[in-house]
Design brief:
209 residues, Lambda Exonuclease, Chain A, seven-stranded mixed beta sheet, globular
């Protein structure tokens, strides 16, 4: 669980509270497939961070700060990013978002605009399963979790425009999936305010001397 400013639970932590990650099943799957669970997790984080870094630097006009890809997989992901930027302009990236009312905070990935229609979208970048040798296959659970994240950002920002999940794939392509604002997610947060506040306090207690 991650806490912002000693009083806000992170957006991703709230998603995990509602639908916890099944770590045991994941590790069992890795064992069955002969894969290293820790390595997969670390690789996924690195790939996601790389894509975010490239887009954030581009948004700020600092492309020269982006380190070159370290392998073919990173290179293919960056090909997808470059193609994405031919179709979408970045309005803003990596912005901290806080919701005092519902006790959460996070960092939204980006506001983008489609060049052809000028449609403005609050977006979240993903590299779902990019570490795999197989092509990207839509995972409805992961899309649902991202929809929850975007809903929380949109509510905190009073965002009224479109929401979209941008997936960068391991074959050098990308796709964007539009999602709808999820009222049910906000209802869950309100109904579980006590759980959220207790979680924040428990996490803070762990770091107290």
């Amino acid at each position: 669980m991650r806490i912002y400013d000693n009083k806000y639970l992170s957006v991703t932590s709230i998603v995990n509270l509602r639908d916890p990650f099944d770590d045991t099943s994941f590790k069992n799957w890795c064992l069955k497939m002969g894969k290293n669970a820790s390595l997969i997790s670390a690789t996924s984080r690195i790939l996601g961070s790389k894509v975010s870094e490239v887009l954030d630097n581009h948004s700020k006009g600092l492309d020269w700060l982006t380190a070159p890809p370290i392998d073919d997989l990173e290179a293919r992901l960056l090909e997808g990013v470059e193609d994405f930027l031919k179709h979408y302009d970045l309005i803003e990236t990596e912005k901290k978002v806080v919701c005092d009312k519902l006790h959460y905070a996070g960092t939204m990935d980006g506001k983008i605009v489609y060049k052809k229609t000028k449609e403005v979208i609050l977006a979240d970048w993903k590299t779902f399963g990019a570490y795999k040798e197989k092509p990207y296959k839509r995972d409805s659970k992961k899309i649902k979790h991202t929809r929850w994240q975007l809903t929380m950002y949109a509510y905190a920002m009073n965002w009224k425009d479109s929401l979209g999940v941008v997936v960068f794939k391991n074959d050098g392509t990308w796709e964007i999936e539009k999602v709808k604002f999820d009222e049910g997610m906000l209802e869950w947060i309100v109904e579980n305010e006590g759980l959220i506040l207790t979680t924040i306090q428990n996490e803070e207690d762990k770091v107290q001397p």
